[in-house]
Specification:
heterodimer; A: alpha/beta; Rossmann fold; eight-stranded mixed β-sheet; 11 helices; 8 strands; globular; B: alpha+beta; Alpha-Beta Plaits; 2 domains
Chain lengths: 271, 241
């Protein structure tokens, strides 16, 4: 992003920034579940919002949506209601703690966990409708490499893969990145290493993934594949506390190491 | 009289109007059950024969569109659970309209039948070969290793290209097909419509590429080999030692 002029948090500031052509779309995905994907998506959204960005987090984990759980929201209206035309998009976009907006999937979406042309068209339509109204659309995708996940990722121009240093998480992150490179033709993917045990572990893991990718995914001539380390969030007791209390880390423990890392991630995305 | 112990009689089979059903079966050349008419086994035989009749395409004897769609939906669900590779081929006779226009519809029917027979000869008993439209066919191949996909498609294409369909005494037509192929998404819940759409996209490529050819969708390779894993963990393992 060229000019990241901090603007007031209030949504009234929207008009002042209306010149933007449309939101940047960012998919947060992981391969393996339980590595902190939704945690990263929600807190990154709060960090971006704190810098004056208008952010919408879309719960694209249709089958096992849990953004509402992470944010301690009890939504009355969800994406499901928009799909079934029981609510308008405006009604279903809810304010979340942290100064951003959310569009929650809700448990009624289980029937949509199967990607059908209908679900695909509806998601496409919704993303197109919300794009002009925000600076960022963050798509919190499900775990795995299912076609719903791949489709959700395909809706975004930028991808963040969240991984922990655990071997199973790394393997799944690698498989995900490989599929994104080969199937979606992506040449650039961002990596967030969560629950790092020490400083520099993220850099080491990123380098390792980069090496294997260079060897097995292979560069398209003139288009080298780039895996960029966008963030390293170290294991932090404050994160555990925030997750258990269903609070945003950035609101309740803004001073902790992990919160600083998330803020740095937001700054890097805006740089 | 103890009504409670009497077996419940739900219907009297002889009250059923089966004339039309029997007529249909006879006309289709179906074998009627040999058991005592209106007995349970006889009725079951009639129902089975009717099911068989309604699942097949009358002209070619292949599965019809309805049973194909059922089989496709079943296969999508099976693959999602088993992770086995399954291939869907869609086929279309090249320039079929020209056959109908130049030689008439009876000739067209002969061509369709010959192509159907050729397809049926190329597939295994477990595969589902179907006529899904006028000159359109599809084959579902469960448990088809990904490396065989292109081979199978090529075999069907070749077999059809070798045909000489006699449409009139002394007059034979050469015929070709274009094929598109896509594998079912493994381990994931998906829909049969999307699978069909992906195969059709490849069929379209084959047509656009000059016909009489097979195009296969590049497989999404999410498999991580032992070699990749070894390299991935080389440093982390050293690190922890």
């Amino acid at each position: 992003m060229s000019s990241a002029t901090p603007a007031p948090l209030a949504s009234g500031a929207a008009a002042a920034k209306a010149v933007r052509p449309g939101a940047r779309t960012l998919a947060v995905t992981s391969g393996k579940g339980g590595v902190g994907k939704t945690f990263v998506a929600a807190n990154l959204a709060a960090a971006l919002a704190a810098r004056g960005e208008r952010v919408l987090v879309l719960d694209a984990d249709l089958g096992l949506a849990n953004l509402d759980v992470v944010l301690n929201l009890q939504p009355k209206l969800t994406l499901h209601d928009v799909f079934t035309e029981k609510a308008t998009l405006e009604q279903a976009i809810l304010p979340a703690p942290g100064g951003f907006s959310v569009l929650l999937a809700g448990s009624g979406m289980v029937e949509y966990s199967r990607l059908t042309p209908e679900v695909r068209d509806k998601l496409l339509e919704i993303v197109d409708l919300v794009k002009p109204r925000f600076d960022w659309i963050v798509l919190d995708t499900g775990a795995g490499i299912s076609d719903v996940v791949l489709f959700a990722v395909s809706l975004a121009t930028e991808v963040l893969v969240v991984a922990t240093p655990e071997p199973t998480s790394l393997t799944d992150a690698y498989a995900t990145i490989k599929v994104l490179a080969t199937q979606q033709g992506r040449r650039q993917v961002g990596l967030v290493v969560n629950q790092a045990s020490r400083v520099g572990e993220g850099k080491m893991i990123c380098g390792q993934l980069q090496q294997v990718l260079a060897r097995f995914v292979g560069p398209i001539p003139g288009q080298p594949f780039k895996l960029e380390l966008m963030g390293e969030v170290r294991s932090d007791n404050a994160v555990r506390q925030a997750v258990l209390k269903r609070q945003l880390l950035l609101e309740h423990y803004p001073g902790c190491d992990a919160a600083q890392s998330i803020k740095a991630l937001a700054a890097k995305l805006l740089a | 009289m103890n009504h409670k112990s009497a077996p419940p009689s739900i219907l009297d089979a002889r009250q059923l109007q089966l004339d039309l059903a029997l007529q249909l079966l006879l006309q289709a050349g179906a074998l009627l059950p040999e058991s005592e008419p209106y007995s349970q086994t006889w009725l079951q035989g009639i129902v089975d024969a009717l099911c068989d009749l309604s699942s097949k395409d009358a002209l070619t004897g292949l599965m019809n569109r309805r049973s194909f769609e059922m089989a496709l939906a079943r296969e999508v669900d099976r693959v999602a659970r088993s992770g086995e590779p399954a291939l869907l081929l869609t086929l279309d006779i090249d320039h079929f309209k020209a056959v109908n226009d130049s030689y008439g519809h009876p000739a067209g029917d002969l061509v369709i039948k010959a192509v159907a027979d050729a397809i049926a000869q190329c597939v295994r008993p477990m595969d589902t070969a179907a006529r899904v439209g006028g000159e359109e066919f599809a084959v579902i191949m469960p448990n088809c290793p990904s490396t065989f996909g292109a081979t199978v498609a090529e075999r069907v294409r070749e077999r059809v290209a070798q045909l000489a369909v006699e449409v009139a005494p002394g007059q034979s037509l050469a015929v070709t097909v274009s094929l598109g192929g896509a594998f079912a998404p493994q381990w994931v819940r998906s829909s049969s419509l999307l699978w069909m759409e992906r195969a059709d996209r490849q069929l379209y490529r084959a047509k656009a590429g000059g016909r009489n050819r097979a195009c296969m969708e590049a497989q999404v390779d999410s498999f991580v080999s032992a070699e990749e894993k070894g390299m991935l963990f080389a440093v982390t393992q050293q690190d922890s030692e």
